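Good morning,

Attaching, inline, the backbone tokens for the sequence recovery test we're adding to the shared suite. The designed sequence is right after.
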């Protein structure tokens, strides 16, 4: 078998392996999301049963207000934890896909570099400047890709930092609201 058809077969095999790896990463993320949601549903059902029992034991309006205010903060904490778990799963899948993409691009750059080297060895006399131009263009494109990759990673880090800051601010606001509701319920109990 000649070298060119073998190279084509090797590239096709590598492409299929990459597609399978990407599908596996996405499916693993989907499995984690399903597992997380099943845990959340089970925990929610258990908590609803427990809270329903507690609600049935409430005797007066002050107890009802205290009970209701006690529901706010744990709910906010659970929503934040759930959001964080979902974000972690999605970020993990994204990281896997980015790694696969980077590997494919690096492999493509290596193959292109090898092809340019092969071309330069077999190029006719007098084409040295054209070969040098091709090599220079390839180096410039590689440098530009590296710069874009670094910028994209920095942007992703900033976005993650902003998401965490927003999540913490939301959690603090929910906590403050729950504390305020608890204080109001305590005051109404004392005044009654």
């Amino acid at each position: 078998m000649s070298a060119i058809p073998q190279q084509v077969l090797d590239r096709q095999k590598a492409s299929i392996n990459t597609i399978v790896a990407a599908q596996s990463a996405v499916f693993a993320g989907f499995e984690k999301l399903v597992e997380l949601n099943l845990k959340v549903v089970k925990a929610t059902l258990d908590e609803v049963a427990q809270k329903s029992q507690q609600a049935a034991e409430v005797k007066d309006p002050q107890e009802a207000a205290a009970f209701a205010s006690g529901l706010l903060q744990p709910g906010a904490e659970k929503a934040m934890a759930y959001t964080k778990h979902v974000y972690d799963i999605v970020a993990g899948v994204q990281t896997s896909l980015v790694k696969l993409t980077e590997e494919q691009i690096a492999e493509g750059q290596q193959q292109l570099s090898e092809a340019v080297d092969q071309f330069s060895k077999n190029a006719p006399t007098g084409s040295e400047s054209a070969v040098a131009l091709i090599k220079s263009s390839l180096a410039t494109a590689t440098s530009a890709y590296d710069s874009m990759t670094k910028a994209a990673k920095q942007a992703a880090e900033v976005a993650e930092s902003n998401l965490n800051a927003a999540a913490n601010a939301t959690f603090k606001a929910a906590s403050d609201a729950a504390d305020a509701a608890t204080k109001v319920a305590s005051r109404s109990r004392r005044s009654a």
